[in-house]
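Crash report, auto-generated. Payload:
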Amino acid sequence: MSKTIFEVKNLEVSVEDKKIVNDLSLSIKAGEVHAIMGRNGSGKTTLANSLMGHPAYTVLAGKVILDGEDITECSPDERAKKRLFLGFQYPVAVPGVSLGNFLRTSLGFVRGEEIPKKELRKLIKSEATALNVPDDFLSRSLNEGFSGGEKKRIETLQMQLLQPKVAIMDETDSGLDIDALKLVAEKINSLRSPDRGILLITHYQRLLEYIKPDQVHVMIKGKIVKSGGASLALDLESRGYDEFAGASNG
Amino acid sequence: MVELQLPTAKDENYRYVSLRDVAWTKQDSTTVLKEVLPEDWSSIDADQGLRVLLQGAYAKPQVLEDKDFKGVQLSVEARPVFEKFKDDFFCGLIGEEKTLVVKVPRGFNSKKVLRLSDVVASGVPTTIHRCVIEVAEQVDLVIHNDLSNEKKANDHKSSFVSILHFEIADESRVKFFIDQSLTTSTAFAFRHSAVVGKNSTLSYWGYHKGASRGQHRVECIVAGEGGHSEVKLGVRAQNKDAIDIWAQNYHNVKNTTSDTKVWNVLEDEAIVVFNGNIDIGIEGLYTQAYQSNKNLLLSDKAQVHSMPKLEISTDDVKCSHGATIASLDSDQLFYLQSRGIDGPTSEKILVDAFGYTVLSEIPLGSVRNRYLGDEGDFL
Ligand SMILES: Nc1ncnc2c1ncn2[C@@H]1O[C@H](COP(=O)(O)OP(=O)(O)OP(=O)(O)O)[C@@H](O)[C@H]1O
Ligand SMILES: [Mg+2]
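Recovered output after restart:
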């Protein structure tokens, strides 16, 4: 049996004194892909941000364990160095910081070693090309003025460069055209390996056709109300969330 | 949260006699001098400097020949003067009580950057640099003025006065960058002014770092139809730095434009005062003039006083002015940190990014890299 690579235990998260994530638990074994689906506003992004250590989200209770290590108290950069990755639903624009330099800085920190500039450039450029991210994007400001789909490809590029142990991808499929979706799915699939875990947050069954999840969780009002196999996503697609909504009221 | 603070009453220290008034009313220069300089600037011999500016600008500028004037050739015939700066076609080490008059001939067009290199000597109580740059018609010119004593010992109190006037004739383009990084024991006063002729453009950039006290004034008279002035200033203020910025634009002929942007980054207990003014006279029909002031406060004890102003005496103009004050954006910080970049480095990146709009336009790559590292040259 493979080990548990990522574990969320009874997590409760509040934002501005409002409890958004409620007693949520999740356990991902190495090699597995899990998917979380849920209505708008059910708390998926809140969960993702708090797993990455966003300071605006207060963890009221619970634990986050990455590869056996409790990271609940770690800062976002420490989590990244321990190889947790979050692909953002809405990557924030940082005018004045070029994508290329940002990637280089990020890689330097996560790997914790000086990597020769030339080597880094080569690596970044070749991964960018593989994701159809044109060279001139690298000298543009980070996430500024890029289209929705371009931003998602850039998120995927970062995942690819940082080679995380656990990747949380928050609606990385939203905004991608048909070809880009395939490409991004391919990259996420290639990350799939016996020593990593992947958590996908998505609204669409389509992504899960490319990336077969081991488990699908339904999130309603900050809680996982049902977990199941890949077929659960299909059920949701045809029947909607209504029948699960009741489950969180009680 | 930090709030925009507007002074309730005009602080006497910031009384300002504009160059325009001096020129147009032909006031006696000595009276002006007394009023222009706040008392605590007494250590700076700006009196003399300003007088020279007025002469230079409004009496006909003259080349002041002087046998002691070391290392500078006053005619601009595209000849390198110092070997070590052989990439530039002209440069000067300007000592005290000298006025450098640079006459740029008609049609002059250089791909190279004209560099005015001043060395702010530590230990010398006051360094004054006075320069009049006369630009004839159809000139295309980039000037870089490098002021720095950053690498010098930090134990001398010195002050630095830079007085600079541009007379730009018609159909010319001048780009000017003044780049100042001084030690904290330095004070500075800049009085810079320009008259921009018909269909000409002045792009003026300035960047300040260091210096415990400083005042930077830029005044542009867009005097010819179709003239344009563009002013971008960036300030990094730390410790108890007190920096005073004035940017003024006058429009009193038809169809002129100006755009002024001032960025300030404040840390510790620094204070920055920004006075911006767009003044459109009755002849200034169809003027378009914009002015903005952005401030990034990294400490609760830092203070910004932002006073953008408009004075419009005619119709049919487009103007805007505004000021913003913000601290670092927590979502941007989180994004950088989520990629493994530690807190202090993330903050530094964001602070640098804030000033990027000013810094990325420094015409000399080597100087640009002094502030931006490799920023911008990824490919
Ligand atoms: N910083 C915040 N301040 C106030 N409310 C917040 C904040 N962040 C999230 N919320 C609220 O928390 C709830 C959950 O939001 P969240 O973004 O986690 O939803 P989601 O499941 O990701 O939705 P979507 O499918 O639309 O992306 C929403 O009601 C939202 O308004
Ligand atoms: Mg979301």
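Post-recovery validation: Residues A 15-16, 20, 38, 40-46, 56, 89 surround adenosine-5'-triphosphate (ligand 1) (CB under 6 Å).
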